[in-house]
Design a protein that fits this description.
With about 625 residues, this protein is of the alpha/beta class. It has three domains: about 10-360, TIM Barrel (Alpha-Beta Barrel), CATH 3.20.20; about 375-495, Jelly Rolls (Sandwich); about 520-615, Jelly Rolls (Sandwich). The protein is about 25% helix and about 30% strand. An eight-stranded parallel barrel has the order 1-2-3-6-7-8-9-10, surrounded by four helices. An eight-stranded antiparallel sheet has the order 16-13-18-11-20-27-22-25, with no helix packed on it. A six-stranded antiparallel sheet has the order 15-14-17-12-19-28, with no helix packed on it. α6 crosses α7 (about 195-220) and α10 packs parallel to α11. It is globular, with a radius of gyration of 27 Å.
Length: about 625
Amino acid sequence: MKQFAPAAVVLLCLACVATAGSAPQSIRSGWVGVDMSSRYDFSMLEPMAAHGMNTVLLALEHHSDDEMLETFDRWQRRTDALGLRVFCGVMLWNKGDLDRFPLDRTFADARGKAMRRTPCPNDDGFWQRRVTDLYMRIAKWSRDRANVDGILLDAELYGGDVGTYRSACFCDPCRREVAAEMGIDESALGLEGEEAVAAYTSASEAIVARRKKQTRIAVHAENPRLILAAYDVDGSPVPFYRGLIRAWGTPERPFLVCSAGTYQTGYTTTLQPDRIEQCRAWGLHVEWLGGLWTKRIPHENLAENLYYMARDTRGYWLYHMRSFSTPVPSAARLPGLGALAYWKQIKRAHREIDAWQQSRGRHDSTLTIRPFQTAPPGVDTTRHRPVKLAAGDDPPDDLPGFLLRHTEQLFHIAADRGDTVSLTLHFDSAHPTKKKMDAAAIVVVDPAGRVVLHDAFRRSDFGDDRGPHGRFVGSRDVTFEAGQAGTYSLFVKSVYYAFNISASSHPWIASMGYPNGTNYTRVDYPEHLFLVTRAGAANARIDVTCTPMNRPGTITLRDSDGRTLASGQIQGDPRAKHRGSLTLEFKPGAGPQVVRMTFEPAGRMRDTNLYPGDGFTPWIGATADAPFPAEAH
């Protein structure tokens, strides 16, 4: 999810057009993404209604046309029974859609670089199939379903080369159409200089607005009471988003923008009367809904943000309501005390919102907007399992040959009763120029399953130090007393940062696999690591995908004597975002075998996913004498 520049002209307009004070009731909504595994998980709906939320923003991630209406129908009935409103939504361009919707036109930037996985925003055929036809079916279906308030478009390009459009499209058909719009020959476009590009952009916006208006007309012909809404359209002054904003709002049914501009930073916009009047003078029929990514916002700061969003705008929306499901998916787990703490703050915000609306704007709330740091993600400590580690030599006091990223990583550390366990966690920004808004949760669980330490690494802990590859680096010292003998679990979880143990008083290993049961582990910029085969395995296989840096890479498996067991070259595929794939396979010995895995060029392959086959144990080590569990030896 993204951050957006608050100075963008579009954001200023949208934030100012309509306020919740003029509405009978603020929209208090939550986003629910629906895939096939969670298609009929309604467990968050009753708590939403019980705590004063009133609207569900529903988005189908993958669907066939028949499944779409069947799914919407089930959710509509369930929300209606609880007194909840609902917006039914689809995603503009999701992962895997390219196989279902071959593209006749693809996006190209001003340099003419084509993005083969990104649809041209002005492709009428694509838009008709992907949006208008579906919207008309939803509109017709919704006629006699009174709690369906509107249709929602998730405009993020999950299946594209980029997440959002960053400029006008300059593909050949767009150039011809823009030239015609400007009344000139295509050869006279002359896209040199800011004025020429601005003129092209303005003409492109006019085309988008005129064409997308037809979708709104078609929808309202089927059901005139529906509101059209969209997520991720207010971030930048790009023709597609601005044209959509101009096309989809009417005085009776303003376009509802579910903004991501406050997603991680919280609500800070001040609405001024002159800006409101200016936006009205521009003729924009828009209402603004502030968004918050709940697992990135500390629960202590939630009520104030919800209150001021609902007071100054049309309301709020929370991402993602799966964080309030039962059971909670590991990836959606909330920080700290979890859902109960967040529900308490949501209810507090609603009391303040109600008081403000009932007083017709005279209520003086004690809530104030306070600065905060991104909350460390929630950790699923139920993943703790007793693991009997073998004796191992003391680990080296330097950084291992790999970093772990994009996971809730579980480390295992054996200690005797009375030991003081000291270790240092190394963190890497995993980005060459940015310290992304993030935090890492650090949790230690004792052999009995009790949490004995809860800490965090935050963005501010990076400082200005950079590692050998130019990325920002930082560290966090962790110390705890072993109250009993056995294996302790160290959980480290971050959305963006890469990390590993760089120094430890006790030997350790890491578990492979994700909390949701997916059998892979992501390592970043690896040089080398160690795996171990299963006793009696007839075959050992590991699949690898990664993004090589500028040139092919070589991955090799070697035994403890340095003999090559398997080796192969991995090459990025431009059609797959330059990701490459490789399978390495060999016949292991009779007993468990420690295998050294090397990556060349060292430290240059990012986003490297390891998928071990049945011939490997689910452990990964930093050295050959790591304390792999006794059953592996």
